[in-house]
# Entry
Amino acid sequence: MNSKLLASAALVTVLAAASPAQAEGLYIGAFGGANFADEADGTGDVGGGYGYTVEVENELGWAAGAAVGYGFDISLRAEAEVAYRMNELDQANIAIAALDLDGDTTALSIMGNLWFDIPLNGPVRPFLGGGLGMAQVGLNDVEVPAIGPGTF
# Structure
């Protein structure tokens, strides 16, 4: 699940970075939008040679963040970004049973990015980039109606 959320973070970052594509000097940006968190899969062993599988599904969520960067006059930009994402939990499929869930999945991410603006004349301003970062991912206020509340 962490890699899927980071992939969502990268996609939102790419879409958000389009606005300062010709920035020189200091710039600040903000972004927001939909967050598509994929299901989380796992397996376990209850002993005696019996195992189980778990799939946790999320609903469509939201993402918001901000970035501050500096554009150099050589078509290169360096940027720091912080973002927050949240998706409500939908259901868990454990073995052959489906359980409704209450609670949410959240991710707080911090990234450092480098962007190279491809110098073309015209309305389209392509760029290439990449970055490194980390995210703190959590399940919050998880409640399975048949079992009760808990935090993981």
About this structure: The longest strand covers residues 76-94. The longest helix spans residues 2-16. The CA atoms of residues 26 and 70 lie 4 Å apart. The radius of gyration is 20 Å.
